[in-house]
């Protein structure tokens, strides 16, 4: 049994999200250091405000100011802050009902320790130094024992409203390819291509994924295929891919390695792009240090008969 | 109308699950799943070709693999083309879809499966990506933090305290000693605070696993299983996504789903609750009005094994298996999704009286 292969995998994406009118007013307000709620028809004030009443689904647009001070409705002490969280020192997660609001907002509370936090305690907003119109414009809350704050700016008159946010998301994984693909990758490091045969239909899958997709059973019998193969179909690439140092036009092809029942794909080189054809016999070209063939080139053999690969198209 | 019409009785006829483990890094998802698919088919003697409808639940975000459910289909044997569907939810919701499909009469048998590999990523962070993207997700509040806010709300309301939560943890893991598939079996120290007031013992183990069930309608169910677990009712309900809008000490969505599924018509003898955090069992017991006579989580529940995306389906499978084996006559199964029991599914399963 080969050792488990592992590699770091980062999935990262900046999600660009547009805002509805209520969200836009709220986040624009944060940028300008005011907090807006939205009133429901039955008189409740929702903070953070939403576009539709969560109970009746009615469209709601009646914005009102609420306080920058409020009351903790529940809390949880975070001993070890994680990446992306509002503070990088231990803090309390809190739900805060701002003065004038009927619902609570999730955020962080900067406090010296869990003994300094309790449900019912009074807090106020601490603004971020740089504000862009995002929930993180509130840096956090902080303990507060003063008066209820008053608001002086009218958010409805703010120019240049925020219409969207960019929410960066990053997740880190450790990828491991599983039994069949691990064996395949290990074999490639010795410049051999090893597929797996289905015990039921006898087809040989390259690369193997551990299961025969037709029969739904595990493949386990390892079968060395190639190194030579046949171009079953191909396309001509005319647009240069980012970060890819290959001159266009070039040919990308499906290649059925000898002994395989599934075509894999690869680049065809060593022949003008407009001379590549179905049935062309090819072999892999390895470069020093690369874990897989750089490309495939013609072997010089006569083209394969269509009947020999028509099932592999 | 969410109770099955009398002329179309649908039952869980087989259930299988993997051993749930902290990591299954030596296996791909399909390699982990396939033995469970074979086991559940073997229990009924059915072949892939005999299955009228296949439905699965999983999430690409867990393992960071795009379109992983299409690769998982390799383990089913989807050629010639099968009638198939997928939900990016716990497999309990895949079962709900399959149940509706069988109700229509378009299918007599269904294979439902679910799998989750939490080991490649950091599941606490991964789960933040299901939150409201404007007001919550940018703060990266992890799953334990949100559950801790709910636990503190329950403590403040006088509904529970730390010793009671510790007792919930130990009772579930004690029950899991009888469950060979569970990841945590027997006593586990309550440990330090992870996010106060939740200690490590209040939180579910992180692990990989898969599960599958087969549903069958009418006479087919009787042919395939000596004592089918008939679905008397099943319903699911969701609450507002803003945590601060909800009363975290209660679960009105669970109560409503239970009402619609017929839970309160007659007492149940068994309940499999999908409560990954101890405090959530307190909320569910109250919402479902479970008395002392009800056996709760004989499997050990999600505190003993919590393969995300499969743990809810496993509750239905465990409840059904109790009926198959004659250890229950009327069982409740519950599945949850989202932070702090945001969305809840409740099913009532019954065996024919002996």
UniProtKB/TrEMBL annotation, chain A:
GO terms for molecular function: DNA binding. Keywords: DNA-binding. Residues 64-127, 223-286 form the ChsH2 C-terminal OB-fold domain. Gene3D superfamilies: 6.10.30.10. Residues 192-218 form the ChsH2 rubredoxin-like zinc ribbon domain. Pfam families: OB_ChsH2_C (PF01796), zf-ChsH2 (PF12172). This is DNA-binding protein. It comes from Streptomyces cahuitamycinicus.
TrEMBL record, chain B:
InterPro entries: Thiolase, Thiolase-like. GO terms for molecular function: acyltransferase activity, transferring groups other than amino-acyl groups. This is Lipid-transfer protein. It comes from Streptomyces cahuitamycinicus.
